[in-house]
Amino acid sequence: DAKTTQPNSMESNEEEPVHLPCNHSTISGTDYIHWYRQLPSQGPEYVIHGLTSNVNNRMASLAIAEDRKSSTLILHRATLRDAAVYYCILRPNLYTGTASKLTFGTGTRLQVTL
Amino acid sequence: EAGVTQFPSHSVIEKGQTVTLRCDPISGHDNLYWYRRVMGKEIKFLLHFVKESKQDESGMPNNRFLAERTGGTYSTLKVQPAELEDSGVYFCASSLGGSSTDTQYFGPGTRLTVL
Fold first, then answer.
1. B47 to chain A: closest CA residue
2. Is pLDDT of A8 > 70?
């Protein structure tokens, strides 16, 4: 499985944008890039995913490098409720059982301060 | 609409005892997954059900773990006998489809402590 590399931790001030990087230099041409986050004492939750083009949703934006070897999750205005561990996950573009599982790394712990 | 629920939220047992964890997926979700995080480690996949069938059980650590999903609705994960290294948080997730673009919705987890 292709691996991802993320910084262990990042800090942000509230109301400011946050850019969370992820390196995935061994990504396959058909791997989707997913982001999940885990808030304290909760299960992981989906944030966003993409393949080649940049993506936006109500939670965040995903910027994917042209060579797809890296991506950046963008929180446009961080709030205290965004403090969580953010996971960048690659998922093979296969409709098979083994492609369904999520492979979590260590993620980036985001701290948001007033 | 109710999310994924798990029961119990916490369980404390002694080594050698049996524990059964339960997961109720989102209604209509055929795909159900079990994951766990043991102390200091990353969240690891255990297995994946499609309806009542085990689609992928490559992450099950050993034969002390038994997962079932009779009738394709809720699922149970039994640990028998429990060992100290089984302590951790067990998460259940469900999804409508099983493709690589289907969102997995996670429950809050069951924290298992084996003494």
1. A101
2. yes
